[in-house]
Amino acid sequence: MHKNDTMSANRTKPARMPERVNSTDRAALGHLLRETSVGHFAFVEDGRPVVMPIAFALEGDSLLLHGSTGSWWLRRISTGIPVTASVMTVDGLVFARSAFESSMRYRSAVLFGSCTRLDGEEKLAALDVVTDSLLPGRRPELRAHNRKELAATMLLRMRVDEWTFKNSTQWPEDPDEDIAGDTWAGVLPIHTTYGEPLDSPDLRHGIPVSASARQLAGRHRVTTP
Amino acid sequence: MHKNDTMSANRTKPARMPERVNSTDRAALGHLLRETSVGHFAFVEDGRPVVMPIAFALEGDSLLLHGSTGSWWLRRISTGIPVTASVMTVDGLVFARSAFESSMRYRSAVLFGSCTRLDGEEKLAALDVVTDSLLPGRRPELRAHNRKELAATMLLRMRVDEWTFKNSTQWPEDPDEDIAGDTWAGVLPIHTTYGEPLDSPDLRHGIPVSASARQLAGRHRVTTP
Question: Which of A118, A157, B27, B73 has the fewest CB atoms found within 10 Å of its own CB?
Answer without folding.
Answer: B27
